[in-house]
Write a structure and sequence with these properties.
Blueprint lengths: L10 H8 L8 H11 L7 E5 L5 H10 L2 E6 L2 H13 L6 E5 L14 E4 L12
Parallel strand pairs: 1-2, 1-4, 2-3
Helix pairs in contact: 2-3
The structure holds S-adenosylmethionine.
S-adenosylmethionine binds next to α1, α3 and β2.
């Protein structure tokens, strides 16, 4: 079903309000498997597209030593994720930026690995 315009609260608002930590099926086990398949290791620059509450970005940094930029379209998600990175003491390794996955604001050759967990089907009604 196509969305017609923006209706409040959005599903993203509902997720944020719920405080649920992992927003995709498979939980940490799947996140770890994804990281292993991507061969994450210290020093790599990872882009976590649709980073939500920052759970995966923080996990990747703490577990694999990577630098992570999380990008999400929701201002609330960005605020929460940034706060959580600070609480985990890794604000130097993990940052979050507001943006649209369909217009990524990064220069060429600045990212080693791009990960996107569980954002398929959450697009607007621009016709794609
Ligand atoms: C189901 S959550 C998944 C969050 C996280 N990746 C996880 O697995 O826990 C989907 C996220 O995609 C974000 N999102 C939806 N459309 C987006 C877009 N066009 N660009 C960037 N983020 C988007 C939402 O704000 C939400 O945080």
């Amino acid at each position: 079903m196509k969305r017609k315009g923006t209706h409040k609260p959005t599903i993203e608002d509902a997720i944020e309000i719920s405080g649920i930590e992992i927003l995709h099926p498979g939980g940490y086990e799947l996140t770890r498997r994804t990281a292993e398949l991507c061969e994450l290791r210290a020093g790599l620059n990872v882009l976590d597209v649709s980073s939500g509450r920052g759970t995966q970005a923080i996990f990747y940094a703490l577990t694999f030593g990577v630098n992570v930029t999380g990008l999400d379209i929701s201002e609330e998600m960005i605020k929460t994720a940034t706060k959580r990175a600070g609480e985990n003491g890794i604000s130097d390794k993990v940052k979050f930026v507001l943006g649209d996955s369909q217009k990524l604001p990064f220069a060429d050759n600045t990212i080693d690995v791009v990960i996107n967990e569980c954002a398929v089907g959450i697009h607007d009604d621009k016709g794609y």
